[in-house]
Amino acid sequence: MATRFTPEIVVDRFQQTRCGRPIGCEDGSMRRHWAGGTDRLLAGRRFTCLFSDLDVPPASVIADAMAELAAAGSHTRLALTPRRDRRIWSADRQCPIAVHELPDSVAQDAPSGVLEYVRRLPGPRRPLTAHTSPRRLVLDLDHGLGDGRFAVDLTSALFAHCRGDSTPWVSQGDTPLALPQALFHVFARHPVQVAAVWRQVARIRSEPAVESGPTVPWSPSYAVTLTRVDAEAERAVNQWCRAHGERPGSAAVWLHLVRQALSTAGIAMTPRAIVAFDCRRYQPDGQTANANFMIGLDIPATLEEPISVLAARLLGLMVSGAPLAGMAVVSAKAMLGLAPDVAAPSVRRIGAPGVVMYSDMGLLTGLEVPWRAGGVRLATGLLDPAGPNAITVLNTRADDTRTLAISFHDNVFDRQVVERAAAALAEPMRILGEPTPSQ
After folding, report:
1. What whole-number distance in Å separates Cα of residue 384 and Cα of residue 379?
2. Which positions ≥6 away from 374 have C-beta within 8 Å?
3. How far is CA 384 from the centre of its chain?
4. Calpha distance 406→421 (Å, rounded)
5. Which CATH number fits the domain that encloses residue 143?
6. What interhelical angle do 307-320 and 322-335 show, nearest 10?
7. Residue 168 pLDDT > 50, yes or no?
8. Which of the residues 29, 41, 265, 288 could staple to 94 if both were Cys, CB 3.0 to 4.6 A apart?
9. Interatomic CA distance for residues 429 and 435, integer angstroms
10. Half-sphere exposure (CA, 13 Å, Cβ side) for 350?
11. In sequence order, what are the residues at sequence separation of 6 or more whose Cβ sits closer than 8 angstroms to the Cβ of residue 309?
């Protein structure tokens, strides 16, 4: 068993630093890790995950399990220190992961309140910090460590180690050079796919928008609102699609519903959306990618077009391999220092329309956590919006319950307006114009 660290000791060791590293971690355990371009691009942004209702072990047990995962190797990524300006990241397997118990007043708050509390905590932030209560686990992650799939695998492994077990994610390592291998698998073996990518890119390309209007000083104010869609409402949406001769994927349906709900609530948006694609689908069988392996593509998504058109566009991009090609371009630019600056700006443009970034993780397969009997199963998160007028939507399903998390800055968008849109999503058939599938 790894050395036991209490939450208080973890905090004290982090507060006493030397050259950016906690004192007591200078024992020869440092390793070097070559950081991928996508990881470097996302380093510094935060991804705050919440899992509830759970039977959560004591914080000291969580700390032990975290220490074991970090010591297992850099493939678990817990020992890494993401740096956007560094090609080589340090990996210290012996430094403890900070684990804090949520204050009682916060632990009893609504899930959105818990997420906002953690994201708004002042002071320096470690790459990974865990916050616990008897019913909830919150992971405050540097996005450079990984994406939503990483968070799911990490959480499953964490609870496995809490009970003295493990998972293949820990024991089997990770695929080296995952992106080059996926590119070879898709494009070198099937060169015709390159032409398919160009055709798809030509269809979604647009001229860069020209921003105008006055600006005002601004600083981030992270907020999130959550809505749950029960199994009955989910079935009604599926029945509606079949009744109208449409068989679109879940991502297209819910992206359409999200944009309609935001618009009806009174939020002006651009006629495009940034949609996240998980590029693990392009890997050869048996290969893995623990690092960031999702990419957002900017695509047309007008409010007027039917769901079938949006679904065909998403399917065409996915089949062509365009997301994988896009990730390769973004990664290469980041490695060459040509990636755009993702630091939060100090000003915002008044009246700028909202930019929706949509990530649909679907059913969270492989999520093995100690769900509390009779509790509401929730796996969701606050994803840092990319700018003042960005709205990030995370769509997940745990068992038969869908949760949509809408992250935004509440000093740009009115919280009540966003909450009105979220409430509408709990009754998706009303957005589609039919209270019941039979009408």
Report:
1. 17
2. none
3. 9
4. 9
5. 3.30.559.10
6. 60
7. yes
8. 29
9. 5
10. 5
11. none
Distance CA 36, CA 54 (A): 34
Q: Domain range for residue 355?
A: 178-207+215-431
Going by C-alpha positions, the residue among 163, 155, 59, 45 that lies closest to residue 107 is 59
Instruction: Check if the beta carbon of residue 130 is closer than 8 Å to that of residue 97.
Output: yes
Instruction: With cut-offs at 50, 70 and 90, classify the pLDDT of residue 91.
Output: confident
β-bridge pairing 137-142 and 128-132: antiparallel
Cβ-proximal residues to 210 (8 Å cutoff; 6+ apart), any chain: none
The whole-number pLDDT of residue 29 equals: 55
Which residue type occupies 191? Answer: P
Q: If 0-12 CB within 10 Å is exposed, 13-18 middle and 19+ buried, where does residue 234 land?
A: middle
pLDDT greater than 50 at residue 27:
no
92 SS3 class: strand
Place of tokens 């919440």: 50
CB 301 within 8 Å of CB 255: yes
What digits encode the pLDDT tens for the residues 44-86? 999 999 999 999 999 999 999 999 999 999 999 999 999 999 9
From the number of C-beta atoms within 10 Å of its C-beta (0-12, 13-18, 19+), residue 331 rates as buried
**370 burial class (0-12, 13-18, 19+ CB within 10 angstroms)?**
middle
419, 285: one domain: yes
Q: How far is CA 429 from CA 91, 113, 261, 334, 420, in A?
A: 49, 28, 11, 42, 16
- List residues bridging with 222 in a β-sheet: 409
- In which element (H, E) is residue 269 found? strand 269-278
Does 196 lie in the same domain as 126?
no
Rounded Cα–Cα distance for residues 134 and 116 (Å)? 19
Residues 122 and 198 in one domain: no
Q: What's the pTM value of the predicted model, to 2 decimals?
A: 0.91
Torsion of CA 131, 133, 135, 137, to 10 degrees: 10
